[in-house]
């Protein structure tokens, strides 16, 4: 086991997952009494709030991801292990990795987040990719760009219309961001690039099951978001339940009536499902899961009966003052910092007050100069909300890796309407030109 | 056919391939008498001289690639078609694409370049990826980074050594660049990132069949390159013929003696083979190919018997003053500009002098502050050659897309020894942590 290489006197903290929760936990430890191992399947921390910018060609994957080892290079007490956890043995207090190796822990923090859920329709996945990983983002980017390419050489008007129609399922922050970015791409970025089509005629449909977009926000913010999206030409279908997705489009029901949208590109921004490690934890410790598969934790993020195991971030289910923790980056960061404090306090026989989520506010960006923001009871939208979004993201990104470059990239793209990372890449990209699907 | 959308009075030029030759040809036309269609399998022009920087984590693919449509957006007489040419009909003067569509031409320029060749050993490809496409580069990047990850968790010293050994086959400019970058990664970039291994102990072997590295350069430059690589700790094996490559390493013969290097990472930077369109042209027009499959063209780049078909760039074989044209970007750019001039001159019944390659000089970079340069009979190496390399590449990249950002990225990385794009991505990357190969 890896820890044999180090002294056995320190308290061994093992963190699974290098997302916002896991990474903030690791960075928050400031004690010489602990050794920390962070295990992730990927070698990088992904700045997920900007993933839609990769999917829409504004940024490259390398610009929103930082190698975990690099972020933690100066913290000699922290080890990074690239590996996939396949089992947990709470009695022996150890993890089993896919390569058969084991890692022993004294305290364990599981923060493996969530993935997208197609509810009971796994067959939709191939037609409507979701947006959780770097590979998802480059796949969606390729589909969007190929749609315009195929429209350019389409043989019939009908085919051309289908290639120029984009359906986004899910009207939460991701769906709203993708719809806004697609509008910007078709109206501005690609305006001069094609000869046979008018990219600005692209139809962008945003389909949401609940009665309004951004349903976690205040109704006034939802209305502002809808107004801003409509001004960009986005077609909004709220209260609409998707009934079918195939290679040629999407069908949905609205007040009993069935609508069909012929769209060659469908993007999934709807359901969220907890990481499978939640189910594994339930099997091994008897802990309960909520409907989305998240682990129902104690007020201090620990498991009942296994207080040495904590769960943080999107995988943890709980509430503050009766309000469930939202599945957003600030929750994960606060969870991570709390978990680190709790573990150190326990070592020093200090008690720790229950975790309390501090809602700093909510932001959703819609496109160039457009966003909605809520801070306490204060609500605003438009360019000031967009500037707030920009500043907050610049602030967090700089904290991570001195990524001033991203600021230049944004400034450059803002003034030129450009999106430089418009590459069709991937395993099949060298022959993707072949079959007209 | 696409051209039906335009008038039939203009001379239809079709260019196959959006590399340096094809793109420079398209950009060089300044005549209203021609309409231009550029066909490529990929939607972007790739700045191939910097591809090794993607393979070694310094740049992201989006930073060295520009969408062809974007580069040509303001040239309304140029159409871009994403497609793969599968047949040529010289009698009917038309191309057939993989999707079955056809494109008619009056003048045709084929500039589809070259790919790597494993000589008579296609089975080596899986163990020793080459470096020609964006996907090749991200695959090599993943292999290099995974090698360090696996060394970190290796069970035995022998296994650790094998993961920390890198073999590069081919001592031309690409092999030299990759070897230098690998030395920099292991000695500087990753120095503080791991806890169980000393990355600086990585063994880097550069294997070349001919008696010296950079054999297209002057012997003095080869000696300088070898000296600079040795100062970085690179092991050089010249006059060494590779006899076997498998999952565990590479074997080669030197003066009759067989040597085995146990290396989990082998990178192929050796043989070059012309694009398969060369063979297709030979079958359809009877033109001769050289040993590497390149098309032997007339002094004006045209085909004997089919003067309306021109070949440019790495796919064209010819010589100036008895010296064969080297397979480098400047040759391709000069070919492209010449082809455009020739076609316009023909339309105006003007004659054009045969193509003459103008050797502006040769450059190969070796790493931080290290390079060799030859301009005419003048040779220099070290930091001045490296600065020359840097300036020339910055100049060309800026010409393409105002990519000032790459300059900031380089400056930032130079002073921090960082390489920000160190991502393990790809179709299997989410589970690549699993099998210890």
Characteristic terms for this protein:
FAD/NAD(P)-binding domain; disordered C terminus; 11 helices; alpha/beta; about 425 residues; six-stranded mixed sheet; 2 domains; globular; homodimer
Structural write-up:
With 437 residues, the first copy, chain A, is of the alpha/beta class. The first copy, chain A, has two domains: 2-41 and 83-116 and 273-347, FAD/NAD(P)-binding domain; 122-270 and 369-431, 3-Layer(bba) Sandwich (FAD/NAD(P)-binding domain), CATH 3.50.50.100. The first copy, chain A, has helices at 20-28, 51-55, 68-71, 134-152, 157-163, 173-189, 219-231, 277-285, 329-347, 383-401, 404-416; strands at 11-16, 34-40, 44-46, 65-67, 78-82, 85-89, 94-97, 102-104, 107-110, 114-116, 165-169, 203-207, 234-237, 240-246, 249-254, 257-262, 265-268, 272-274, 295-296, 302-303, 306-311, 316-317, 319-320, 323-324, 362-367, 370-375, 378-381. Chain A has a six-stranded mixed beta sheet with strand order 5-2-1-9-21-20, covered by helices on one side. A four-stranded parallel beta sheet of chain A has the order 13-12-11-17. Chain A has a three-stranded antiparallel beta sheet with strand order 6-7-8. Chain A starts with 10 loop residues before the first strand and ends in a 21-residue tail after the last helix. The interface between A and B is large, with 68 and 68 residues.
């Amino acid at each position: 086991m890896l820890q044999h290489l180090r002294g056995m006197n320190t308290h061994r903290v093992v963190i699974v997952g290098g997302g916002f929760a896991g990474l903030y936990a690791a960075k928050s430890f400031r004690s010489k009494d602990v050794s920390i191992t962070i295990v992730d399947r990927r070698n990088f921390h992904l700045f997920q709030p900007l993933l839609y910018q990769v999917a829409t060609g504004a940024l490259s994957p390398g610009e929103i991801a930082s190698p975990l080892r690099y972020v933690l290079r100066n913290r000699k007490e922290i080890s990074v292990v690239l590996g996939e956890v396949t089992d947990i043995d709470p009695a022996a207090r150890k993890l089993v990795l896919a390569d058969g190796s084991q890692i022993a822990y004294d305290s364990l923090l599981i923060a493996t987040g969530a993935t997208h859920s197609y509810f009971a329709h796994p067959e939709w996945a191939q037609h409507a990719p979701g947006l959780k990983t770097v590979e998802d983002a480059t796949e969606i980017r390729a589909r969007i760009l190929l749609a315009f390419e195929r429209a350019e050489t389409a043989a019939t008007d009908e085919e051309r219309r289908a290639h120029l129609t984009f359906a986004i399922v899910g009207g939460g922050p991701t769906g709203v961001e993708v719809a806004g970015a697609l509008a910007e791409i078709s109206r501005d970025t690609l305006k001069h690039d094609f000869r046979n089509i008018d990219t600005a005629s692209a139809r962008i449909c945003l389909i949401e099951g609940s009665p309004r977009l951004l349903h976690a926000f205040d109704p006034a913010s939802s209305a502002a978001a809808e107004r801003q999206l409509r001004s960009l030409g986005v077609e909004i279908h709220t209260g609409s339940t998707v009934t079918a997705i195939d290679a040629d489009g999407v069908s949905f029901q609205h007040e009993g009536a069935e609508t069909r949208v012929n769209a060659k590109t469908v993007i999934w921004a709807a359901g969220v499902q907890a990481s499978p490690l939640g189910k594994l934890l339930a099997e091994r410790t008897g802990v309960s899961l909520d409907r989305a598969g998240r682990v129902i934790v104690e007020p201090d993020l620990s498991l009942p009966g296994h207080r040495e195991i904590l769960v943080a971030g999107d995988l943890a289910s709980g509430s503050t003052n009766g309000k469930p923790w939202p599945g957003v980056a600030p929750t994960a960061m606060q969870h991570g910092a709390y978990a680190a404090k709790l573990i150190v306090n326990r070592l020093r026989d200090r008690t720790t007050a229950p975790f309390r989520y501090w809602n700093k506010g909510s932001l959703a960006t819609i496109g160039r100069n457009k966003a909605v923001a809520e801070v306490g009871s204060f609500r605003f939208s438009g360019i000031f909300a967009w500037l707030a979004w920009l500043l907050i993201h610049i602030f967090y990104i700089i904290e991570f890796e001195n990524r001033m470059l991203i600021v230049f990239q944004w400034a450059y793209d803002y003034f030129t309407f450009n999106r430089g990372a418009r590459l069709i890449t991937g395993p099949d990209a060298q022959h993707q030109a072949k079959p007209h699907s």
